[in-house]
Amino acid sequence: MQIVKNYLDTMFQNLPKTEKVFKAKQELYQMMEDKYTELLDAGKSENEAVGTVISEFGNLDEIADSLGIGDDVRNARGSQEYYGAAGAGNGGNGGNGGNGGNGAGNYAAGNSAKKSKPKYTSKTAALIMSVYWSTITCVYLIWSFATFHWHYTWIIWPVAGVVHKILSIVFGANDEEDDEDE
């Protein structure tokens, strides 16, 4: 049950520290604990119970309104460029069946319109820059697997970062809001 408690703490870490949010957290914890106990009583293993509880209650965006903190969650999410806390600390723990990233992944995927998107001077420049990091990743993997010099091939990342910045300047990238989603 400690995994569920840690997951819940992470879900609420970026929300305001108000009495309403605290009560909602306690209410959600009680619901999660009840479900966990119910699953254990039904013969599920501890890992299965944790995974089921997190998958059912793990997306705060979906249940915030029913807890009475929908505005708090939306305001907290809106003030951040992207939200990764709910899944970052929990996506890899062995007890939840891989559902730890559930809340954050759904938020990041559904709210990309709030992020600014670079605009380039030509379509060719935009095309080149859109495949830049994928190409760098492929070059890195091919080079690393072909030579097995992993201790040298990492250098591609800082070099690629500098080259990316230079290309952004040369191609005239500027950050503008994506008007089509507003």
Describe the protein in words.
By secondary structure, the protein is mostly helical. The radius of gyration is 22 Å and the shape is elongated. 65% of the residues lie in helices and 3% in strands. Strands 1-2 form a two-stranded antiparallel sheet. It has helices spanning 2-12, 19-41, 46-57, 60-67, 70-78, 85-88, 102-110, 123-130, 132-147, 150-153, 156-170; strands at residues 117-119, 174-176. Helix 1 (2-12) runs antiparallel to helix 2 (19-41), helix 2 (19-41) runs antiparallel to helix 3 (46-57) and helix 4 crosses helix 5. The two termini are 42 Å apart.
Briefly note the structural class of the backbone.
Answer: mainly alpha
Low-confidence stretches: 81-114, 176-182
Mean residue pLDDT: 74
Strand fraction band? under 5%
Count the helices. How many? 11
Rg from alpha-carbon coordinates:
22 Å
> How can the largest sheet be summarized?
2 strands, antiparallel
Write the H/E string, N to C. HHHHHHHEHHHHE
The percent range for helix content is 55-70%
Strand order, main sheet: write it out. Answer: 1-2
Short recap of the structure:
The chain is mainly α. It has eleven helices and two strands, in the order H-H-H-H-H-H-H-E-H-H-H-H-E.
